[in-house]
Specification:
Elements: H1 7-21, E1 34-39, H2 50-68, E2 72-74, E3 78-79, H3 84-93, H4 97-114, E4 125-126, H5 130-146, E5 149-159, E6 164-166, E7 171-172, E8 175-176, E9 184-193, H6 199-204, H7 214-224, E10 226-238, E11 241-249, E12 260-263, H8 268-276, H9 278-293, E13 304-312, E14 319-325, E15 336-339, H10 345-354, E16 362-363, E17 385-386, H11 397-410, E18 414-420, E19 425-426, E20 428-429, E21 439-442, E22 446-449, H12 476-479, E23 480-482, E24 489-492, E25 496-497, H13 499-502, H14 506-509, H15 522-527, E26 530-536, H16 542-556, E27 566-572, E28 575-583, E29 589-592, E30 597-601, E31 607-612, E32 620-626, H17 637-644, H18 646-656, E33 663-664, H19 667-687, H20 704-725, H21 729-744, H22 755-769, H23 774-783, H24 800-803, E34 807-814, E35 817-825, H25 830-839, H26 841-847, E36 852-858, E37 862-867
Parallel strand pairs: 1-2, 1-26, 3-4, 12-14, 26-27, 28-33, 34-37
Antiparallel strand pairs: 5-6, 5-9, 7-8, 9-19, 10-11, 10-18, 12-15, 13-14, 16-17, 20-25, 21-22, 21-24, 23-24, 28-29, 28-32, 30-31, 34-35, 36-37
The protein binds one RNA strand of 85 nucleotides through helix 7, strand 11, strand 15, strand 33 and helix 19.
Length: 868
RNA sequence: GCGAAAGUGGCGGAAUUGGUAGACGCGCUGGCUUUAGGUGCCAGUGGGGCAACCCGUGAGAGUUCGAGUCUCUCCUUUCGCACCA
């Protein structure tokens, strides 16, 4: 064996063999327990970044571990290949998006292969392939048939930079999720999916997703936003016509305290009033403009104006003034609210500001109500009791709500209602590089679905966008078609689908990517649901909610059986790196890549400064941040792989921090990982002569030292297995390093006599490490003669006999402070342990002359002697 | 503002769920090998003290024989959500 560890040569040779033997291929086998391990597929942006490497390493470690546990593992990969960056790249350099995308896929695929991931490439798919998006279109038509998809013209969020509509979920703080540009309101027709029909189930099933992080479930629950309340109406008369103002409230128990109502600027009542009042019209305009742009809405002052109109209180018959309020949202509830200043903080502020009356109708005995200032108990519905409320006096929140709902219903002016925050999902995008929506617009027949036998509607790939709208609008050969219903000349829809449609079911298609005749087949029932999904927390709402919805639709169409697509979810942390900069003369920051910077430390290892290698002058530290272009602190994975190899990259990623936490980049840490693998390699070479693959041994004849050694190795293995199960891979790596350290401690003269212990220990080490660093482990496993294939070798288990010790060391505390240690037989009883502990020299110094009040013995751990 | 999570050596992070704090690694210090640098190997490394000892998990209280871990208050950071009626 060559003592030089040469990862470049080693890894490419091993990868070639894996490929030749088809070691990562997965076939359905109902006799074996399946395990579907999925990592979120990448957008083919050009090259892999560190976040990808981390994501896919985590997935690969889990896949390989599960396989060694005997499960039939599926680990596929594909490409989220539609989307705007391709159009932008096309505009920059005149290459059609399709070519740009496929070139990127080819390069990134080769990068993934060089990292040694056990991916079944036979199942690879790209969402821009007609074979794939045909089924987007097909399912869309099925949804249309069932009314799950529908067309609607409504005010939508318009991203002025990307020139397209955005779904509600894609608007963050009033700005586009991708561009960050302030979103405008436009009225545009588009197709919507009725995700709201599934709101209840999407919310309820969160409770069953025990393998999901709590915070992701909370985020989804908040997004869906269910509230129980009462919908009630305020009758009014305008120009001799009877009408009703509807509002929604979660505090029906306070309706007797209503002193005014407020409506959104977009509310019909506001617009009607504005038509007669120029001042009000100006205010309404101001609200409309403001409502979209402002990110800090909550901090803005609550403003309002009276409409001059009055409505009738549904229970008391009082006249209630109606105001326009800038804090009322047209998009939630009814776009109008009843205001109870005494028991809602926002209404309270508003009423104080405009001098509107405040009427207390809820009381908590012992508390004093005052209109001078807001107190939190005013809004306490748990402990409040109705007062000043006529027949409802004395009732609590629940009883009052019930009684009031009954009375409202009797008058036809209200009922209990459940209100959702979730809105339907608008999927039309005025973009070229996406899946065409399969609709044909005919003057006579209206919007006609493309017949199934004409699917897929293929996107022409030779367009080059130039920034002036969707180029499909200028493609006569695409647009001009005959109406499928009447045969007359008609016009094809040019909007494409939101790319979140593509990613909502790709994991289902991985199960049967080659089926040209159907969206799904039996194989889907075998593999689904995904057992472990791994990806970034940034998809906590968008992608994960859409996928859950899509899954349920497919289930209701009888296409799949499972209720939920992802059993367990692991959200990996981001990859961070140091930021270095200098302030330039013009006041702008110039950022330097950490590779160009040398960090200085004092003789105790503390950071003392950093200099730019090029000129030796100091640079400022900007702390730690996610790797980004703007901060110039990214590290290219390609350079890392080329210099150290995939195993080192993988080991560092797993060792530096637990998968869910952020990971700080460290060149020294990478060096350390490389050093460790080299040590393993050299150890194998040095012990090649004494390692016996058939190490089965009579362990009872070992010397005491070797029995101790074996005990330690097996204890490390036990810890490693525990951590592997709970997916804390950094300590799995630690456990492997500890085993290595124990093996290295053996004297040269002892090697022969410890051969069996070494052989066993090293075989455990290799197997435990193999999910993380598969290349080096695969090679050494074979080279040392342990077996043909470590990939399918059984996961190592500690020997129970090795875990027990004849003697154990126990800590002895006096009044909770560590004062000594004693070695006692493992089988010793409490009394025996106590006697030994009290006899300890150091311990006796602390208890001498003092009364022993109590002795606590925790077997195998410690003794605590409590003295007066 | 609301909600969640987290604060442990010079650094990344352990601590099997109330039982010996600082595993493992990085860095640093000293030494050996090397023509030299790197690599490799050996020893040391929470702080204070010559020492026995004392102090130490953001701060302060509490429960307990015993608290990094549980409870309360406060501080800081990060991440969500944000006029939701």
């Amino acid at each position: 064996m060559d003592k030089r560890y040469d990862p470049a040569a080693l890894e490419s040779a091993i990868q070639r063999r894996w490929e030749e033997t088809g070691s990562s291929r997965s076939t359905e086998n109902t006799d074996r327990e399946k395990f579907y391990c999925l990592s979120m597929f990448p957008y083919p942006s050009g090259k892999l970044h560190m976040g990808h490497v981390r994501n896919y390493t985590i997935g690969d470690v889990i896949s390989r571990y599960q396989r060694m546990q005997g499960r039939n593992v599926l680990q596929p990969m594909g490409w989220d290949a539609f989307g705007l960056p391709a159009e932008n790249a096309a505009m920059d350099n005149g290459i059609p998006p399709g070519k740009w995308t496929r070139d990127n896929i080819a390069y990134m695929k080769q990068q993934l292969k060089s990292l040694g991931f056990a991916i079944d490439w036979e199942r690879e798919l790209a969402t821009c392939d007609p074979d794939y998006y045909k089924w987007n279109q097909w399912l869309f038509l099925r949804m249309l048939e069932r009314g799950i998809a529908y067309k609607q013209t409504q005010v939508v969020n318009w991203d002025p930079v990307d020139q397209t509509v955005l779904a509600n979920e894609q608007v963050i703080d009033g700005c586009g999720w991708r561009t960050g540009a302030p979103v405008e309101k436009r009225e545009i027709p588009g197709y919507y999916l009725k995700i709201t029909d599934y709101a209840e189930e999407l919310l309820d099933d969160l409770g069953r997703l025990e393998g999901w992080p709590e915070r992701v479930r909370t985020m989804q629950a908040n997004w869906i936003g269910k509230s129980h309340g009462v919908r009630l109406a305020f009758p009014y008369e305008v120009d001799g016509k009877q009408d009703k103002l509807w509002v929604f409230t979660t505090r029906a128990d306070t309706v007797m305290g209503i002193t005014f109502c407020a409506v959104a600027a977009e509310h019909p009542l506001a617009e009607a009033a504005a038509a007669k009042d120029p001042e009000l019209a100006a205010f309404v305009e101001e609200c409309k403009r403001g409502s979209v742009m402002e990110a800090d809405l909550a901090t803005i002052e609550k403003k309002g104006m009276p409409t001059g109109m009055h409505v009738t209180h549904p229970l008391t018959g009082e006249a209630i003034p109606v105001w326009v309020g800038n804090y009322v949202l047209m998009t939630y509830g009814e776009g109008a609210v009843m205001a109870v200043p005494a028991h809602d903080e926002r209404d309270f502020e508003f009423a104080k500001h405009y001098g509107l009356p405040v009427k207390q109708v809820i009381d908590i005995p012992g508390k004093t109500f005052s209109t001078d200032g807001w107190q939190d108990w005013y809004a306490d519905k748990e402990n409040g009791i109705c007062i000043n409320s006529g027949k409802y006096d004395g009732l609590d929140y629940e009883k009052a709500t019930d009684a009031i709902a009954v009375d409202l219903e009797a008058k036809g002016l209200g009922e209990k209602q459940v209100q959702w925050r979730l809105r339907d999902w608008g999927i039309s995008r005025q973009r070229y590089w996406g899946c065409p929506i399969p609709i044909i617009h005919c003057e006579d027949c209206g919007d006609v679905p493309v017949p199934d036998d004409q699917l897929p509607v293929v996107l022409p790939e030779d367009c080059v966008p130039d920034g002036s709208g969707n180029p499909l609008n200028r493609r006569g050969d695409f647009i001009n078609v005959d109406c499928p219903a009447c045969g007359k000349a008609a016009r094809r829809e040019t909007d494409t689908m939101d790319t979140f449609v593509d990613s909502s079911w790709y994991f289902i298609r991985y199960c049967c990517p080659d089926n040209g005749g159907a969206m799904v087949d039996d194989r889907v029932d075998y593999w689904m649901p995904v057992d472990q999904y791994i990806g970034g927390i940034e998809h906590a709402i968008l992608h994960l909610l859409y996928s859950r919805f899509w899954n349920k639709v497919m289930r209701d169409l009888g296409l799949i059986k499972c209720d939920e697509p992802f059993r367990r979810l692991l959200t990996q942390g981001m990859v961070l790196n140091e930021i270095f900069y200098r302030k330039q003369d013009n006041g702008r920051m110039r950022y330097y890549n950490p590779a160009e910077v040398e960090v200085r430390a004092d003789e105790k290892g503390r950071r003392s400064g950093a200099i730019l290698i090029e000129d030796g002058e100091p640079v400022e530290s900007g702390g730690i941040g996610t790797m980004s272009k703007s901060k110039n602190n990214g590290i290219d994975p390609q350079a890392l792989i080329e210099q150290y190899g995939a195993d080192t990259a993988r080991f560092f990623m797993m060792f530096a921090s637990p998968p869910e936490q952020t990971l700080e980049w460290s060149d020294a840490g990478v060096e350390g990982a490389y050093r460790f693998l080299k040590r393993i390699w050299v150890f194998a070479c040095d012990n090649n002569d004494i390692i016996r693959p058939d190490f089965n041994n009579d362990w009872t004849t070992l010397s005491e030292d070797h029995r101790d050694l074996r005990h330690h190795i097996h204890a490390c293995l036990k810890q490693g297995n525990y951590d592997m199960e709970r997916q804390q891979f950094n300590t799995v790596a630690s456990a492997a390093m500890k085993i290595s350290n124990y093996l290295h401690e053996i004297d040269t003269q002892e090697r022969e006599s410890a051969a069996a212990v070494i052989s066993e220990g090293f075989s455990m080490l290799l197997r435990m490490l193999s999910p993380i660093t598969p290349h080096v482990c695969d090679h050494l496993w074979r080279e040392l003669g342990y077996g043909d294939n470590i990939l399918t070798a059984p996961w190592p288990q500690p020997d129970e006999n090795a875990l027990v010790q004849d003697e154990v060391e126990m800590a002895v505390q006096v009044n909770g402070k560590l004062r000594g240690k004693v070695r006692v037989p493992a089988a010793a009883d409490r009394e025996e342990i106590q006697v030994q502990a009290l006899a300890n020299d150091n311990v006796s110094r602390y208890i001498e002359g003092r009364e022993i009040k109590k002795v606590i013995v925790v077997p195998g751990r410690l003794v605590n002697i409590v003295v007066a």
